[in-house]
Design brief:
Elements: E1 2-3, E2 6-11, H1 18-27, E3 40-41, E4 46-47, E5 54-56, E6 71-73, E7 76-79, E8 93-101, E9 111-113, H2 116-127, H3 138-147, E10 150-153, H4 158-170
Parallel strand pairs: 2-8, 8-10
Antiparallel strand pairs: 1-2, 3-4, 4-8, 5-7, 6-7, 9-10
Helix pairs in contact: 1-4, 2-3
């Protein structure tokens, strides 16, 4: 997802609500880059748009709704990329943050910065294609966790989660040093 020419990359295991959060962020004014894939230029710390259908496993909770051009196939809902709100992006954008979802935790804070070690673990388990990088991606995960701010986000309440993502972007995020 993107806002003001900066990208946010979400990562979490399948079925945790990344696509539903993307739909909520679209309704909140964000632009759509991709679902399921986020091609990252590791050297430039940027992400390339890869727009294809946004796929939901269930309809979003109220007050969010499916666009009129949603296609239902079995138990899945496919939202064609050209039907999604937001500007179509064609250029790569700098990564402002990696956000790892922790759905349903209902903690007292919507988001929190995470340690470099936790970020590496998240990147290795859910974000990187380990076969595409030397050393199974460990060096890349370590570099990304150092260079890009990383957060965990409670996505149980989509409205609160959207506000938290805006807050993360509002801060002038420095390079990580810990």
């Amino acid at each position: 997802m993107a806002l003001d020419d900066r990208a946010i990359v979400f990562s979490a295991p399948s079925g945790t609500g990344k696509s539903t959060l993307a739909l909520a962020l679209l309704e909140d004014g964000f632009d759509y880059l991709s679902d399921e894939l986020a091609p990252i230029d590791v050297q430039r710390l940027s992400v390339h748009p890869f727009p294809h259908a946004l796929c939901l496993k269930s309809p979003p909770p109220a007050p969010y709704c499916l666009p009129t051009r949603t296609l239902q196939t079995g138990k899945r809902y496919h939202l064609p990329a050209d039907s999604l709100r937001g500007d179509a992006r064609t250029q790569s954008l700098p990564i402002a943050a990696f956000i790892f979802l922790r759905p349903g935790s209902r903690t007292t804070t919507a988001y929190r910065p995470i340690t470099r070690g936790t970020a590496i673990a998240h990147l290795m388990s859910n974000a990187l294609n380990s076969l595409a990088h030397p050393a199974a991606g460990l060096d890349v995960a370590a570099m990304l966790s150092q260079a890009v701010p990383c957060f965990e986000l409670d996505s149980a309440d989509l409205g609160v989660a959207c506000q938290a993502v805006r807050e993360i972007l509002r801060v002038d995020l420095p390079l990580r040093t810990n």
